[in-house]
Specification:
The chain is of the alpha/beta class and 330 residues long. It is built from 17 helices and seven strands.
């Protein structure tokens, strides 16, 4: 069962005996476990029938004893094991997991890249519950979850606003959902616009890393240096490593565009792992910077990044202007 199916199943009060939630994307592990905490046991019964344990502070035998208890003044018990990856002798849960108490819902939050599915305790959960892998999302997978979250709030978001939010916050789902929560509370209309993102999430309308990339792709030298001048007056917000990293990613993606000239926009956006809204910037960049020039620019950016980190001599913020001159000079 995937993440969305699991969430929908819980909303329909269709609970499993055992849940194993694992993976690098802790946001989804927390979302699923919190939804179970909200729904399995009524609020009036939580004090009797709901317990939360932490792996580092928990003894397996004591945990199993609590798992086997029957509900008091209710029909269901909920046991949540957080930080399960820190639980010693977790394999000792196998005997319980293979014959779970029917009135107990047991949730294991295992925040690690993977679990060994050959282990008997994992196999027991697969047989008597569900295993949900919570992977880090690619950028092109995030819009679906933004819209999923907004649909719960009976809101939507303009494509341009969605794209800017993802480009600004990356694939950090916790930051994205915190931004969505904030926007849902301060935006007057039911549709989030790019103006809302710029006003409430702290992205300057004209001076941000995405406008810099756009100006470079268009070879708009005046705008490039106007943006960099603004960055220079806000060095803490726009450190050199962040700029070089963003430009490195930008020109690396332009190289991919050059290598995939015959595929359609949908496939290209998926290959680049970018929102389709920004695809025109990369195509524009490919027209203005050929393959060989992109390779040269990536080398320049790599040298700039090493200097900024003190690896290849002294470097200060003013030198980023020299880097940009080298980039747009041809």
């Amino acid at each position: 069962m995937n993440i969305e199916q699991t969430l929908n199943s819980i909303k329909q009060n269709n609970f499993q005996n055992n849940y194993l939630l694992y993976g690098e994307e802790s946001f989804f592990i927390d979302k699923i476990s919190n939804l179970l905490i909200e729904n399995v046991v009524p609020n009036s019964e939580k004090v009797f029938n709901q317990q939360i344990f932490y792996g580092k502070q928990t003894d397996v035998d004591y945990l199993v004893t609590n798992l086997k208890l029957f509900p008091m003044l209710g029909e269901k018990r909920l046991i949540v094991l957080k930080e399960a990856q820190k639980l010693l002798n977790i394999s000792n849960l196998d005997k319980y997991l293979s014959h779970p108490t029917k009135s107990t819902t047991f949730v294991i939050c295992y925040k690690s890249k993977s679990v060994d599915k050959r282990k008997s305790w994992v196999k027991s959960i697969e047989k008597n519950g569900i295993v949900v892998e919570c992977r880090t999302l690619y950028n092109n997978q995030i819009p679906r979850w933004i819209n999923y979250a907004l649909s719960e709030k009976k809101m939507d978001i303009k494509s341009s606003a969605e794209a800017l939010l993802i480009e600004f916050l990356g694939n950090d789902m916790s930051k994205i959902m915190n931004a969505i929560d904030k926007l849902s509370q301060v935006v007057d209309s039911k549709s989030i616009t790019i103006d809302d993102i710029q006003k409430h999430i702290g992205i300057h309308r004209e001076y941000n890393i995405f406008e810099l990339q756009n100006a470079i792709s268009e070879k708009d030298n005046k705008r490039v240096f106007s943006i960099i001048h603004y960055f220079n007056t806000n060095q803490k917000k726009f450190p050199i490593p962040m700029i070089t990293s963003a430009l490195f990613s930008f020109f690396s993606k332009i190289l991919i565009v050059h290598s995939n000239i015959n595929i359609n926009d949908k496939e290209l956006a998926k290959t680049l792992s970018v929102h389709p809204y920004f695809l025109s910037n990369y195509r524009k960049g490919a027209r203005n910077f050929n393959f060989e020039r992109c390779v040269e620019i990536i080398s320049i950016l790599n040298e700039t990044d090493q200097k900024a980190k003190g690896i290849l001599g002294n470097f200060d913020y003013s030198h980023i202007v020299d880097t940009l001159i080298k980039i747009i000079s041809k």
